[in-house]
């Protein structure tokens, strides 16, 4: 069986086209920079209606050339994807085969964009995101990895941990299996790693590990930061002073040293990660109970129902996640994952606290807060239903950015072998496993590194789009 080429039967047609489009984009971008540096960007034109700023004609031309070449590049990439999906199996090539494996992701992305754009006027800030090109690109990158994590079982051709195939150690992308079994996928699309496992399958399944831990840990950190930051900023006094001191103390502690301490056998034996989880995992329950009580204190029946459901469901999840004592045996976190999760929450919470506290100090001086005080509203109602909703824009932006920081942090922890088991397909562990032979076999560490880069880039672009739209809102 022959090795796969990168572009298969589409190569003779699309490879020259993508090279020309990339060259045109580079030349037009360089020309745009030179024109912007050495000529006036705008000039004033006077008419009977007054002075009007008019852009430089050459600059407009270079920008149009950049737009056209970028559109051509995107169209050619779409050609690779569609060709890979539609062409026969033996003619797809590596790019086409990978695109074909991602078919559920492309369908989910298309449905998401079509529905979102069709109803964007009814979707508030999320709908406004589709009026922003940067935000749409970031959203597309993020949702690509989200759908990849969701459909990972249908995408991967091999088990990322258990399928160790003899003769496939450190093989190049597109290498065929020596003796594929009946119905087995015949190639390692992105090569094999140092243990003869499929790099493509580990990259895809690694997205599930990362996108399970990073958003959840960031959400818990926000629960802690909001629950403590809003009252600290609104009430002030000794409460604010003590919490701010503790936050600064945690931020001053070296992060990597903290992780090394938490994974040492002595600390684990003492149960320190479990005790930390027991404290941190209480905050979502506390936050929701205070939220329902402050909002529905005059409707006791509804309040009592919501509080009871929060305590029951939250208590069940709390017992399973923090103490591994779920009576039904449905909820638990493996020890290594718990250490990483708690560490990330503990490190991010002080930063979220300081951001929320600063926003509360600013918003609490607004007129609508004074109006709520005049109406006789309680302090928790004002904090959670007047101040917090008006801080949603900056908090949403920081939430997206913080997921990106957490993704990088998880990659760093995996790279150092902290917390997660060594066979885990998470991207940091995969980079660590392939770094020793990077000069000779670059794909095992390079593929997960590109995955981290693309996800973090998407989150940063999404945060930029949300920031711009929240300022307009």
UniProtKB/TrEMBL annotation:
<feature type="transmembrane region" description="Helical">
    <location>
        <begin position="61"/>
        <end position="82"/>
    </location>
</feature>
<keyword id="KW-0813">Transport</keyword>
<dbReference type="Pfam" id="PF00528">
    <property type="entry name" value="BPD_transp_1"/>
</dbReference>
<feature type="transmembrane region" description="Helical">
    <location>
        <begin position="305"/>
        <end position="323"/>
    </location>
</feature>
<feature type="transmembrane region" description="Helical">
    <location>
        <begin position="94"/>
        <end position="117"/>
    </location>
</feature>
<feature type="transmembrane region" description="Helical">
    <location>
        <begin position="20"/>
        <end position="40"/>
    </location>
</feature>
<feature type="transmembrane region" description="Helical">
    <location>
        <begin position="129"/>
        <end position="152"/>
    </location>
</feature>
<feature type="transmembrane region" description="Helical">
    <location>
        <begin position="275"/>
        <end position="293"/>
    </location>
</feature>
<keyword id="KW-0812">Transmembrane</keyword>
<feature type="transmembrane region" description="Helical">
    <location>
        <begin position="242"/>
        <end position="263"/>
    </location>
</feature>
<protein>
    <submittedName>
        <fullName>Peptide/nickel transport system permease protein</fullName>
    </submittedName>
</protein>
<comment type="similarity">
    <text>Belongs to the binding-protein-dependent transport system permease family.</text>
</comment>
<keyword id="KW-1003">Cell membrane</keyword>
<feature type="domain" description="ABC transmembrane type-1">
    <location>
        <begin position="207"/>
        <end position="463"/>
    </location>
</feature>
<feature type="transmembrane region" description="Helical">
    <location>
        <begin position="440"/>
        <end position="463"/>
    </location>
</feature>
<keyword id="KW-1133">Transmembrane helix</keyword>
<feature type="transmembrane region" description="Helical">
    <location>
        <begin position="399"/>
        <end position="420"/>
    </location>
</feature>
<keyword id="KW-0472">Membrane</keyword>
<feature type="transmembrane region" description="Helical">
    <location>
        <begin position="209"/>
        <end position="230"/>
    </location>
</feature>
<dbReference type="InterPro" id="IPR000515">
    <property type="entry name" value="MetI-like"/>
</dbReference>
<feature type="transmembrane region" description="Helical">
    <location>
        <begin position="329"/>
        <end position="347"/>
    </location>
</feature>
<dbReference type="InterPro" id="IPR035906">
    <property type="entry name" value="MetI-like_sf"/>
</dbReference>
<dbReference type="InterPro" id="IPR050366">
    <property type="entry name" value="BP-dependent_transpt_permease"/>
</dbReference>
